[in-house]
Amino acid sequence: MQRVAFLCLGVMGYPMAGHLARAGFDVSVYNRTASKADAWVAEFGGRAAASPRAAAEGADFVLACSGNDDDLRSVVFGDEGAIGAMAEGSCFVDHTTVSAGLAREIFAAARARGVASLDAPISGGQAGAETGALTIMVGGLEPDYQRATPLFDCYGKKHVLMGAPGAGQLTKSVNQICIAGLVQALAEGLHFAQCVGLDAERAVEVISQGAAQSWQMDNRAATMIEGRYDFGFAVDWMRKDLAIALDEARRSGAQLPVTAIVDQFYADVQAGGGARLDTSSLKTRLDR
After folding, report:
1. Is the predicted pLDDT of residue 1 greater than 90, yes or no?
2. What percent of the chain has pLDDT over 70?
């Protein structure tokens, strides 16, 4: 039975670690708020550790799903960071959405210790984490990816090795760029339907059977029509992800005009008190 450490038990990490425990892995967990780790142990068994370093000791795999670059640096490289306790031959897997540069930095630091490293950001939201239906975009080396696939299979419906270290994070940026444009288009379409006197629900019913169909339409149109946004992937987190994409675009020369505009629309939502609303709250700007 392989030993797995899971660092950071947020809305994604908590159920992901649970899937690993149910699959028979020996799981230890760390969370900055210790009561969350204690609750996880009460539900799934395993052990709660007082620090990332303590969780990583003796683990075959160390997984993290934190908030941003700074959070991940802390759990990996901090005074009680995981990397210092990882044994030669073990593997670090990062499910956080962070910069490709940090992913490469972690890979280099891990390799210097004889430790494998994969950047493996996820998509699918809290529902995907709870049902074990996440999409996982992986950067790293093929042998390390193959070693980690039994873990990915526990909570992912699709996982693909995209290329060298950092490629997983770059692919996640593609994902977020596409989502941002789709959500803005859906917000405008629904707003238009309501302004011209159409039944927006009936409009969605018919156009969702044609070329306009998307995951966002299937899963967010109804709640957008109702004006409900107190759930899902927060605007704060989307802006963090878009900042990563826009920064990478500046370095590479990629042109992202729509993404830059939508990012500013999200800034408007934040300024209006909607920082923790679901990303579909772009429609609130149009309905004021």
Report:
1. no
2. 100
Active site residue 283: no
Domains, in order of start, for the chain: 3-163 (3.40.50.720), 170-286 (1.10.1040.10)
pLDDT in tens, 63-103: 999 999 999 999 999 999 999 999 999 999 999 999 999 99
> What pTM was estimated for this model as a whole?
0.96
pLDDT attached to residue 191:
98
Mean pLDDT value across the chain? 98
Instruction: Provide mean pLDDT across the span 220-229.
Output: 98
Which of these is catalytic: 36, 158, 172, 240?
Answer: 172
Record the tokens describing residue 30, joined without a space.
């760390």
